[in-house]
Amino acid sequence: MKITAQMVKELRETTGAGVLEAKKALEATDGDYDKAVDILREKGAARAAKRSGREANEGVIELYTHPGNRVGVILEINCETDFVARNEQFRELAHDIALHIAAMSPSYLTREEVPQDELNREADVLRNQALAEGKPQEIVEKIVSGRMNKFYEEMVLMDQPFVKDDKMTIGELVTDSIRTTGENIKIRRFARYELGESLD
User: Fold this and answer.
1) Is there a domain that residue 23 lies in?
2) Domain holding 147: CATH number?
3) Helix/strand/coil (H, E, C) string of the chain?
4) Which range (25-29, 77-81, 167-171) has the least confidence?
């Protein structure tokens, strides 16, 4: 299939890849747009992993209030330079993540932050559920493992499907932004407040 300049342009707009990189991805997939996007996202994830050790001390504090002023979010998201921190795309990322936190109410930023006793308690409940459903003992642990992933999707920000595009997680959204900006980006912390919620 002939790779046209328009095809390359569209792929670049979607992925933020360079001209040559986009063209090569399209050639490798015989013009299949979706497969080319996947190839570029995988390359971006590899580059993002290399950048993850770099210092990220610039960024923004994003304040978001849900319509009706019943839910508010404070989010700190960091990057490497103030140039990227002032960039419209980075600001939009911060806003989208704060909006997501308001809508999806995660309890933790990463899996590592979930207390071990909470994980043990959840695994015990899921194990007992599987046994009560009559599942064979030998597959119960696999079932528990699968259902724990669902628990992480509900409780952990980086594992949650993005509210504006549930085909990607917040972690993948950040990885894509690292690839696009060329800088390490980290969500440092967040707080979500809901009017009238218990303070316990």
Assistant:
1) yes
2) 1.10.286
3) CCCCHHHHHHHHHHHCCCHHHHHHHHHHCCCCHHHHHHHHHHHHHHHHHHHCCCCCCEEEEEEEECCCCCEEEEEEEEECCHHHHCCHHHHHHHHHHHHHHHHHCCCECCHHHCCHHHHHHHHHHHHHHHHHCCCCHHHHHHHHHHHHHHHHHHHEHHHCEECCEEEEEHHHHHHHHHHHHCCCCEEEEEEEEECCCCCC
4) 25-29
